Amino acid sequence: MKQWTLWDLLTGQRAKSRRKPPRAKPPAPKPHRRKPGRVTALVEPVPAAPSTRKGGMQDRYDAMTRELLATYGVRVRKWRSSMSGVAWEVYYQDGKTVRLIEAPRPKGPMSAAVFLHEIGHHAIGFHRYKPRCLEEHKAWEWALEEMRRRNLNITPAVEKRVQASMRYAIGKATRRGIKALPAEMAPYVDQPTGVRTKDRSVRNGGL
Predict the structure, then answer these.
(1) In total, how many domains does the chain have?
(2) Domain range spanning residue 167?
(3) Buried b (16+ CB within 10 A) or exposed e, 88-111
(4) pLDDT bucket at 23, cuts 50 / 70 / 90
(5) Residue 27 counted as domain residue
(6) How do residues 90-122 score in pLDDT, each as one tens digit?
(7) The dihedral formed by the CA atoms of 98, 66, 165 and 126, expressed in degrees to the nearest 10
(8) DSSP at 201
(9) I need a surface site. Which of 46, 81, 196, 205 has the fewest CB within 10 A?
(10) What's the sign of the alpha-carbon dihedral 105, 109, 114, 117?
Protein backbone atom coordinates (compact mmCIF):
# COMPACT_ATOMS: atom_id res chain seq x y z
CA MET A 1 0.00 0.00 0.00
CA LYS A 2 1.27 3.45 -0.88
CA GLN A 3 2.55 5.42 2.11
CA TRP A 4 1.64 9.15 2.15
CA THR A 5 3.82 11.78 3.76
CA LEU A 6 2.58 14.58 5.95
CA TRP A 7 3.28 17.03 3.21
CA ASP A 8 1.15 15.06 0.82
CA LEU A 9 -1.73 15.07 3.27
CA LEU A 10 -1.45 18.83 3.90
CA THR A 11 -1.31 19.84 0.26
CA GLY A 12 -3.89 17.32 -0.86
CA GLN A 13 -1.65 16.12 -3.65
CA ARG A 14 -1.01 12.51 -4.25
CA ALA A 15 1.58 10.95 -6.28
CA LYS A 16 0.05 9.71 -9.45
CA SER A 17 0.52 6.18 -10.48
CA ARG A 18 3.03 5.77 -13.19
CA ARG A 19 1.20 3.04 -14.90
CA LYS A 20 1.54 3.24 -18.65
CA PRO A 21 -1.72 3.90 -20.47
CA PRO A 22 -2.90 0.98 -22.51
CA ARG A 23 -1.92 1.07 -26.16
CA ALA A 24 -4.65 1.97 -28.58
CA LYS A 25 -5.47 -0.77 -31.01
CA PRO A 26 -4.43 0.03 -34.56
CA PRO A 27 -7.35 0.59 -36.89
CA ALA A 28 -8.38 -2.39 -38.89
CA PRO A 29 -6.97 -2.23 -42.42
CA LYS A 30 -9.47 -1.28 -45.08
CA PRO A 31 -10.01 -3.87 -47.77
CA HIS A 32 -8.10 -2.93 -50.96
CA ARG A 33 -10.14 -3.03 -54.15
CA ARG A 34 -8.35 -3.08 -57.50
CA LYS A 35 -9.69 -0.80 -60.14
CA PRO A 36 -10.49 -2.62 -63.35
CA GLY A 37 -7.93 -1.97 -66.07
CA ARG A 38 -8.72 -0.85 -69.61
CA VAL A 39 -10.06 -3.48 -71.95
CA THR A 40 -7.67 -3.80 -74.84
CA ALA A 41 -9.38 -6.61 -76.68
CA LEU A 42 -10.92 -5.72 -80.04
CA VAL A 43 -14.68 -5.50 -80.06
CA GLU A 44 -16.62 -6.60 -83.08
CA PRO A 45 -18.62 -3.70 -84.56
CA VAL A 46 -22.28 -3.82 -83.84
CA PRO A 47 -24.29 -4.21 -87.02
CA ALA A 48 -26.75 -1.49 -87.90
CA ALA A 49 -30.22 -2.03 -86.58
CA PRO A 50 -32.52 -3.47 -89.20
CA SER A 51 -35.20 -1.28 -90.64
CA THR A 52 -38.37 -1.24 -88.59
CA ARG A 53 -40.45 -0.99 -91.74
CA LYS A 54 -41.00 -4.29 -93.46
CA GLY A 55 -40.16 -4.07 -97.14
CA GLY A 56 -38.88 -0.48 -96.82
CA MET A 57 -37.98 1.11 -100.16
CA GLN A 58 -34.38 1.77 -99.16
CA ASP A 59 -34.00 -1.91 -98.28
CA ARG A 60 -35.23 -2.78 -101.76
CA TYR A 61 -32.90 -0.29 -103.43
CA ASP A 62 -29.93 -1.58 -101.45
CA ALA A 63 -30.74 -5.19 -102.27
CA MET A 64 -31.10 -4.34 -105.96
CA THR A 65 -27.78 -2.50 -105.96
CA ARG A 66 -25.88 -5.39 -104.39
CA GLU A 67 -27.52 -7.92 -106.67
CA LEU A 68 -26.82 -6.14 -109.95
CA LEU A 69 -23.25 -5.19 -109.10
CA ALA A 70 -22.54 -8.85 -108.31
CA THR A 71 -24.46 -10.23 -111.30
CA TYR A 72 -22.60 -8.15 -113.87
CA GLY A 73 -19.29 -7.96 -112.03
CA VAL A 74 -19.34 -4.16 -111.86
CA ARG A 75 -17.34 -2.02 -109.44
CA VAL A 76 -18.41 1.45 -108.35
CA ARG A 77 -15.50 3.85 -108.71
CA LYS A 78 -17.47 6.68 -107.10
CA TRP A 79 -20.95 7.31 -105.79
CA ARG A 80 -21.97 10.64 -107.29
CA SER A 81 -24.09 13.22 -105.51
CA SER A 82 -25.46 14.50 -108.82
CA MET A 83 -27.97 12.70 -111.02
CA SER A 84 -25.36 11.80 -113.64
CA GLY A 85 -23.29 8.73 -114.40
CA VAL A 86 -20.80 7.02 -116.66
CA ALA A 87 -19.92 3.42 -117.46
CA TRP A 88 -16.74 2.03 -118.97
CA GLU A 89 -14.42 -0.95 -119.16
CA VAL A 90 -10.67 -1.28 -118.62
CA TYR A 91 -8.81 -3.94 -120.59
CA TYR A 92 -5.49 -5.46 -119.50
CA GLN A 93 -2.84 -7.26 -121.54
CA ASP A 94 -3.45 -10.51 -119.70
CA GLY A 95 -7.04 -10.50 -120.96
CA LYS A 96 -8.61 -9.25 -117.75
CA THR A 97 -11.52 -6.81 -118.07
CA VAL A 98 -12.65 -4.54 -115.24
CA ARG A 99 -16.16 -3.10 -115.41
CA LEU A 100 -16.66 0.26 -113.74
CA ILE A 101 -19.37 2.85 -113.20
CA GLU A 102 -19.92 6.16 -111.49
CA ALA A 103 -23.52 6.83 -110.54
CA PRO A 104 -25.71 8.07 -107.69
CA ARG A 105 -26.54 5.52 -105.03
CA PRO A 106 -30.16 4.41 -105.58
CA LYS A 107 -32.36 6.17 -103.02
CA GLY A 108 -35.36 7.09 -105.15
CA PRO A 109 -36.81 6.71 -108.66
CA MET A 110 -34.42 9.15 -110.35
CA SER A 111 -31.18 7.92 -108.77
CA ALA A 112 -32.29 4.32 -109.35
CA ALA A 113 -32.96 5.04 -113.03
CA VAL A 114 -29.53 6.61 -113.56
CA PHE A 115 -27.82 3.76 -111.72
CA LEU A 116 -29.71 1.17 -113.76
CA HIS A 117 -28.87 3.00 -117.00
CA GLU A 118 -25.14 2.69 -116.26
CA ILE A 119 -25.54 -0.96 -115.29
CA GLY A 120 -27.49 -1.36 -118.53
CA HIS A 121 -24.43 -0.44 -120.59
CA HIS A 122 -22.62 -3.44 -119.11
CA ALA A 123 -25.69 -5.66 -119.36
CA ILE A 124 -26.23 -5.07 -123.09
CA GLY A 125 -22.50 -4.93 -123.88
CA PHE A 126 -20.32 -2.13 -125.18
CA HIS A 127 -19.94 -1.59 -128.94
CA ARG A 128 -22.77 -4.01 -129.62
CA TYR A 129 -25.12 -1.31 -130.90
CA LYS A 130 -24.05 1.45 -133.25
CA PRO A 131 -24.22 4.40 -133.55
CA ARG A 132 -23.65 5.57 -129.99
CA CYS A 133 -27.11 7.09 -129.67
CA LEU A 134 -28.63 3.65 -130.31
CA GLU A 135 -26.52 2.19 -127.51
CA GLU A 136 -27.82 4.93 -125.20
CA HIS A 137 -31.38 4.05 -126.19
CA LYS A 138 -30.82 0.35 -125.49
CA ALA A 139 -29.27 1.11 -122.08
CA TRP A 140 -32.29 3.25 -121.12
CA GLU A 141 -34.62 0.59 -122.49
CA TRP A 142 -32.92 -2.01 -120.27
CA ALA A 143 -33.06 0.29 -117.23
CA LEU A 144 -36.78 1.05 -117.57
CA GLU A 145 -37.62 -2.61 -118.14
CA GLU A 146 -35.67 -3.51 -115.01
CA MET A 147 -37.64 -0.90 -113.03
CA ARG A 148 -40.93 -2.37 -114.27
CA ARG A 149 -39.79 -5.89 -113.46
CA ARG A 150 -38.95 -4.83 -109.91
CA ASN A 151 -42.12 -2.75 -109.51
CA LEU A 152 -40.18 0.48 -109.08
CA ASN A 153 -41.95 3.74 -109.74
CA ILE A 154 -41.15 5.32 -113.12
CA THR A 155 -42.07 8.92 -112.43
CA PRO A 156 -42.71 11.68 -115.01
CA ALA A 157 -39.36 13.16 -113.97
CA VAL A 158 -37.63 9.90 -114.91
CA GLU A 159 -39.38 9.84 -118.29
CA LYS A 160 -38.38 13.46 -118.89
CA ARG A 161 -34.78 12.61 -118.02
CA VAL A 162 -34.76 9.78 -120.58
CA GLN A 163 -36.08 12.14 -123.25
CA ALA A 164 -33.45 14.79 -122.44
CA SER A 165 -30.65 12.21 -122.40
CA MET A 166 -31.65 10.80 -125.78
CA ARG A 167 -32.00 14.22 -127.37
CA TYR A 168 -28.53 15.07 -126.18
CA ALA A 169 -27.16 11.81 -127.66
CA ILE A 170 -28.91 12.48 -130.98
CA GLY A 171 -27.63 16.05 -131.03
CA LYS A 172 -24.07 14.82 -130.48
CA ALA A 173 -24.45 12.30 -133.31
CA THR A 174 -25.73 15.05 -135.60
CA ARG A 175 -22.83 17.34 -134.79
CA ARG A 176 -20.46 14.52 -135.64
CA GLY A 177 -22.01 14.27 -139.08
CA ILE A 178 -24.23 11.20 -138.87
CA LYS A 179 -26.04 10.61 -142.18
CA ALA A 180 -28.97 8.56 -140.93
CA LEU A 181 -30.44 7.91 -137.51
CA PRO A 182 -31.77 4.53 -136.38
CA ALA A 183 -35.55 4.22 -136.53
CA GLU A 184 -35.62 3.89 -132.72
CA MET A 185 -34.69 7.58 -132.47
CA ALA A 186 -37.99 8.82 -133.95
CA PRO A 187 -39.80 9.24 -130.56
CA TYR A 188 -37.05 11.52 -129.27
CA VAL A 189 -36.79 14.13 -132.02
CA ASP A 190 -38.96 17.23 -132.37
CA GLN A 191 -37.05 19.73 -134.53
CA PRO A 192 -36.36 19.33 -138.27
CA THR A 193 -32.69 19.02 -139.21
CA GLY A 194 -32.73 17.13 -142.50
CA VAL A 195 -31.23 14.00 -140.99
CA ARG A 196 -32.90 10.84 -142.23
CA THR A 197 -33.32 7.37 -140.75
CA LYS A 198 -32.74 4.21 -142.76
CA ASP A 199 -36.42 3.82 -143.54
CA ARG A 200 -38.05 7.24 -143.11
CA SER A 201 -37.46 10.90 -142.37
CA VAL A 202 -37.27 12.02 -138.75
CA ARG A 203 -36.88 15.34 -137.09
CA ASN A 204 -33.77 15.63 -134.98
CA GLY A 205 -33.64 17.80 -131.88
CA GLY A 206 -30.77 18.81 -129.65
CA LEU A 207 -30.75 19.92 -126.04
Answers:
(1) 1
(2) 57-197
(3) eeeeeeeeeeebbbbbbebebbbb
(4) low
(5) no
(6) 999 999 999 999 999 999 999 999 999 999 999
(7) 30
(8) B
(9) 46
(10) positive
